Amino acid sequence: MSKQTQVVDWALNVARQNQKFKWTNNPNYSSLTLWVARNLKENPPNPFPLPPLNENLVMICYEFPLYAAATTEAISLTDLIKIYEKAYKTSWDETLNGYWFSNPTIYNTNTHKPDIPKGNIVFFNDTEHIAMSTGDRGRSGNQMVVSFWGFSKDPGKGFPTPLTVDSVEALTEIMKPRDVKVGFAKAPW
Predict the structure, then answer these.
(1) pLDDT one-digit tens code per residue, 36-76
(2) Mind listing the pLDDT tens digit for each residue in 89-143?
C-alpha cells in the first residue's frame, strides 16, 4: 500500500468514526503550531509525540493531511517540524505551494475530469482550502475528498467529512463569492 493511500485511509477511518476536534483558521490557536514551538524551544533529542486526536485538538484544514501523514509515519515528526520552520521563515501559502503544488493539475468541475488519484492533495483557490482525494466518485459522478472544515452543528468543533469536490467548491464560494479554482497534486510522501 502506498503512503498516499495509507494517509487518506487513516483520514477516512477518522471520518467514519465521527472523531471531532476543533477547527481554526488561526495558526496561533493550532495544536500543531504549539507542538512545533515546544519542540523548537526545548530541542529534545527526539520530537515530542504529536498531540492526541481528541476534542481538545485544534487544527487548520491544511494541517489535517500533515497530521495524518505524521500519524501514519508517511513523514517523520522531524520532517513535520521542518515544514513548519519553513512556513515561519516564509509564509504558509509559499510553503504549501512549494511543498504540495509544484506541478498542479486543474480539475474541471463541469466535466468532473480528470480523475483525481487516491491520496492526492486537492486545493481550492490555491491554499484557501485543502483536502485529500479518496479516489472515489459520488453518485453525481463527482470526485470525493475527505475534508476538514469548521462547518459543524457544534460551534468550534469540526470533523473530517467525505464530500464531493463540488460541495467543497460551493462552500468555498459561499465564504468568498467568486469562481473557485480546483486543482490537485500528488502528495509529497
Answers:
(1) 999 999 989 999 999 999 989 999 999 999 999 999 999 99
(2) 998 888 888 887 777 899 988 888 999 999 999 998 888 889 999 999 988 888 9
Contact 60, 25 (CB under 8 A): yes
Cβ-count burial 108-141 (b if 16+ within 10 Å, e if not): ebeebeeebbbbbbbbbbebbbbbbbbbeebeee
At residue 179, the pLDDT reads: 79
Say how many domains are in the chain. 1
- 188 Cβ neighbours under 8 A, 6+ residues apart: 75, 99, 100
Asked if residues 120 and 184 have their Cβ atoms less than 8 Å apart, the reply is yes
Separation in Å, CA 135 to CA 54, 101, 163, 172: 27, 18, 12, 21
Where helices occur in the chain by DSSP H, the ranges are 3-16, 31-42, 63-71, 77-89, 92-100, 165-175
Give residue 89's domain range.
3-185
Distance between CA atoms of residues 150 and 156, nearest Å: 7
Query: Given the C-alpha cell 483536502, which residue does it identify?
Result: 131
